[in-house]
Amino acid sequence: MAFPFLLYLSFLFLSLPALSLSQQQQQQPPKGYLIDCGAIGSSMIDGRVWLTDDGFISSGTAKNLTVPNLVPTLSTVRSFPIRNGLRRKFCYVARVYRGARYLIRSTYYYGGVNGLDFPSPPVFDQIVDGTFWSVVNTTEDYSKGLSSYYEGVFEAKGSTMSVCIASNTYTVSDPFISSLEMLILGGSLYNTTNFDSHALRLVARHSFGHNGSIIGYPDDQFDRYWEPYEENVSVIASNTVPSVSGFWNIPPSKVFERALSTARSESLELRWPPFSLPSSTYYIALYFADNGDSPASSREFDIHINDIRYYNNLIVGSEGAAVFATRWPLRGATKITLSPAADSNASPLINAGEIFDVLRLGGRTHTRDVIALEGMKNSLRNPPLDWSGDPCRPRDYSWTGVRCSEGERIRVISLNLTGIGLSGSLSPSIANLTALSSIWLGNNSLSGVIPDLSSLKLLETLHLEENQLTGEIPSSLGDIESLRELFLQNNNLTGRIPDTLVGRPRLEVRTSGNQFLTPPPS
Question: Signal peptide: which range, if any (predicted)?
């Protein structure tokens, strides 16, 4: 059967010598960060160090929950203020290895932190770098006394990576976060995804037939979470566990200890994931291994998803098999059917599955502009609280006062921070924002000198009035041919107005209120 809508489909079957459980337990935990948000000190949990979040974020308020008997990483949160329904993001920023693939997991437990007026958790957004990751809605889990977690796979595009909590128009009380994990994945995992342009958002990951707690580290060397999953079908135990060291995506051996199965002549039908999916393109990986109950058995079956052929005549032996599709369109309820082949003398079975939404990356602000804005931020004593993460993306969450261009090359084209009480100085790095057409920094408390801005060849408007700027007006401002407005009134400027700014056509210059300013030469 043809798949005209299927963009790319790949399959891989691997088997290598088995890796014993004791060898797995000796593996080192994945490298990266375990961040206990809002905690006042680092802690050791199950042999792994959880860090405080002070070194990763400069905004928000650390709060303790009063709910008894919580695990340590749920007992505190960092909360972020909403303001007049504005969309604002607050970002954790971590040093990372450029080009490495990171598993990012955020965990939320509300605990009534916003007070009695808000008994239900707020709904808000989360963002990675410049890409919208997902809406955070923990209401259903919280009503059952449960925490909620979200997981994704993102590639580091630079030396830092940001994970942001963002209030939206539907956010009615302060957003929060309980913990954040940023862990390096093995380079071979999910490597058929083009991480140059896409990321993966976890939809579901289950160990079929497993009825215990979530499988994580050390069973999974990358600390992915495999949730238990049972349906009204037979659960069988395995007499053999395949190698996982060479298995595609390296699932933990524990998921192969049990499987869902059915009678030999019957098809196995799963409603998985166990909820309706929005229309999108998904990465689907299914994992199988023969349970070894009969050496002479031949386990062969076809796989269909929503009655569309996914794979034909899959032969599953004790060494195991993984079948995956990198871009498979789904919408609504999903049905997976395993149908025994005519000459198969063993029933179909399935051990585990993963499904991710394939996210298109939202773009990134030009590196030169990011560095320039960071320099400007560092020169201010009180920069806007949301000046972290990507300055321009997602578009609805650009930094306060920052306006950006559209298209593939994302540049900062305007700064408007008029009258927000800024203090500090103007960093010379502002001159590296070479796409700027306007700068509005009037009515603040900025001090120091005006830097050389002659590199801003597109600048039309420069408003620095009503500040505490000192020194002379740079003569280099006269080199900006596009300049139409230069407002410098009511500062503490001295010296002479440069000849190149006097009487120039189509340029309005205002300098009143600078009492030590000498008149221009006649």
Answer: 1-22
Cis peptide leading into 68, omega within 30 of 0?
Answer: no
Distance CA 117, CA 72 (A): 26
Residue type, 27: Q
Adjacent-strand bridge partners of 496: 518
pLDDT in tens, 310-368: 999 998 888 888 999 999 999 999 999 999 988 878 889 999 999 999 999 999 999 99
Domain with CATH 3.80.10.10 in the chain: 367-518
- Could you read off the pLDDT of 109-118 as tens digits, one per residue? 999 999 999 9
In angstroms and rounded to an integer, the radius of gyration of the C-alpha atoms of the chain is 29
Q: Which overall architecture, per CATH, does domain 31-184 show?
A: Sandwich (2.60)
State yes or no: pLDDT of 294 exceeds 70.
no
The class level of CATH for 8-22+200-360 reads mainly beta
pTM, 2 dp: 0.89
CA separation for the pair 440, 416 (Å, rounded): 4
Beta bridge mates, 8: 327
Fold that domain 367-518 belongs to in CATH: 3.80.10
Residue span(s) of the chain under CATH 2.60.120.430 come to 8-22+200-360
| pLDDT digits 0-9 by tens, 173-227 | 999 999 999 999 988 899 999 999 999 999 999 999 898 899 999 999 999 999 9
Indicate the burial class of 262 (C-beta count within 10 angstroms; 0-12, 13-18, 19 or more): middle
Secondary structure percentages of the chain, helix, strand, coil, to 5 = 10, 40, 50
